[in-house]
Amino acid sequence: MAGLVVRSTRSRGSFRLTLKFTLCKPTLLFGNKMRLDHTARKFGTLSEPPRFHVLPNQNRPKQEAQPARVYNDKIQVFSDVSNRYVDIPNVWLRDHCHCAKCFHEVTKQRIIETFDEIPEDVRIVEGTLTEQADTISMQWQDGHSSTFDKQWLVACGLRNRPRSSERLAVTRTRLWDGKSIKANPPSVQYDDIINSDTGVLEWLLKIKEYGFSYVDKCPPTPEASEALLKRIAFIRNTHYGGFYDFTADLASGDTAYTQLGIGAHTDNTYFSDPAGLQMFHILSHTNGSGGASQLVDGFSAAAELYEQDRDAYNILATTTVYSHASGGDDMSIQPYRAFPVLLHDSQDGSLVQVRWNTTDRATIDTPMESMSQWYSAARQWANILRKQEYWEQLQPGRPLVFDNWRVLHGRSAFTGNRRVCGGYINRDDWISRFRILNKGRSAVLDEVLRA
Ligand SMILES: [Zn+2]
């Protein structure tokens, strides 16, 4: 038997996973014989409740930065994990030389073949390790020279603070409900976005802050709408196609293409990686009425549930749910695993994604004896969503773009012919565009290529 046991323990406020691996027969590593201990991930087995919360904690105390130093032929940095100076292993230093021979100057990809070219016991030539005002430099046994920025080395020692704020591109987040947003929703001018990156940044900052933004004075054509979306990144293809332009019919085998009303939901729960952004642009609506659009701030709804009933919140954060898209004869798209309705960052515990689509919901991955608790938690959640709804009649010339990981959308039933265009953008692609515009490429890469 092979056993992989995952134990979650907490010490000094940090969350640790201990992996214990016992192997008898290597062949058992393959196929479905290798299993995680699934009871360990249910927090019922933990000694204290999980530290799930809605927004990232931006008020952690900043570590007092201690300078990097040369000590006993090693470079040392202050580690906030063990609260003392620690040696930087030579093999890591050599692997992180950022000179043009080791890292590609433009793509910042590693050129050096770490495991072929750097011996495990790689040595610094005696007497060559020297400290300058802002840098430390050395010569390696193979003749290569490296220079490291001291501030960068200092940052490499500080590992207690989760790097989540960088990965998640945390900026100001404003929670809203229908009442607070209706009078003054966020909006950006079409021309500003088309003509300048500053306009794109202004747009993305609003989407980061509110989870959505309108664009005003867009020509009511599919071409202008597509060009607008492509200012952020390329459009994601799905089984529906790429950029879409449709009128109500059932050609795509999904209720979204009918005249029925649709309750607040997020899209793509049937993908492992749901789309990050979605655009809707109503190009025309003739011979009928209805079809108002609704948005709900999922983070705001989560915050209300968090205050109202912490147990219900934790059930939606830990019980996983499967989903599927099986509208075509030859497909049944399913994610590689079930995900909770409220998905949290594994490092800092903050909410990163809402996955709520009761139309596409499949198995609720919990035993029958705890099923009613999930329904009760989900009902509380659904009631909060309804309470916080924001309704608006979308207009030609005013596309809407929203963060599908945060904001839920829906619409009321309608009559007549409605022509809508739009498309998806991947989460990683829009966050990449946002971070580069917001912080600059070199600041982003400094973070990527450190410890
Ligand atoms: Zn180098």
From TrEMBL:
GO terms for cellular component: mitochondrion. Pathway: Amine and polyamine biosynthesis; carnitine biosynthesis. Residues 86-153 form the Gamma-butyrobetaine hydroxylase-like N-terminal domain. Keywords: Carnitine biosynthesis, Dioxygenase, Iron, Metal-binding, Oxidoreductase. It catalyses: N(6),N(6),N(6)-trimethyl-L-lysine + 2-oxoglutarate + O2 = (3S)-3-hydroxy-N(6),N(6),N(6)-trimethyl-L-lysine + succinate + CO2. Belongs to the gamma-BBH/TMLD family. This is Trimethyllysine dioxygenase. It comes from Microthyrium microscopicum. The lineage of its organism: Eukaryota, Fungi, Dikarya, Ascomycota, Pezizomycotina.
